[in-house]
Amino acid sequence: MADQSKVPAFEKEIEELESVVKQLEGGELALEQSLSLFEKGVALSNSCRQQLEAAETRVEILVRKGNSVKPEPFRTDN
After folding, report:
1. What's the predicted TM-score (pTM) here?
2. pLDDT tens digits, 13-55
3. Distance between CA atoms of residues 39 and 6, nearest Å
4. CA nearest neighbour of 21 among 32, 34, 10, 11
5. Cα–Cα distance measured from residue 41 to residue 16, given in angstroms and rounded to the nearest whole number
6. What is the dihedral of CA 23, 25, 26, 28, to 10 degrees?
C-alpha cells in the first residue's frame, strides 16, 4: 500500500469506502456495527461524489472562436 500521507484525499476516501464495503459484505458484524459502517460508507460516498462533481466542473475544454477563448463543459459522449 502507498504511503498514506502522500495519497490525495479522494484516493484515501475511495480506499476507505472499499474497506467499509468489504466489511459489510463479510456479514459477520453486529447490527449496530453494520449500521455505523453503513453510515460511514454513505458519508464517504457523498464526499467522493462531491469531489468528482467539483473536478468535472473544473474540467473544461477551451475552444478558440475567432480572437476569443470560450470555455465549454467537458463532454463524455463520443
Report:
1. 0.68
2. 999 999 999 999 999 999 999 999 999 999 999 999 999 988 8
3. 26
4. 34
5. 8
6. 90
Delineate the domains of the chain, giving CATH numbers in brackets.
9-73 (1.10.287)
Look-up: residue for cell 473544473? Answer: 58
What single letter denotes the amino acid at residue 18? E
* DSSP per residue, 21-76: HHHHHH--S-HHHHHHHHHHHHHHHHHHHHHHHHHHHH-EEEEEETTEEEEEE---
Query: What is the phi/psi pair of residue 74, to 5°?
Result: -70, 130
The rounded distance, in Å, linking the Cα atoms of 73 and 65 is 15
**Amino acid sitting at position 24:** L
Q: How far apart are CA 71 and CA 28, in angstroms?
A: 51
CA-based end-to-end distance of the chain: 35
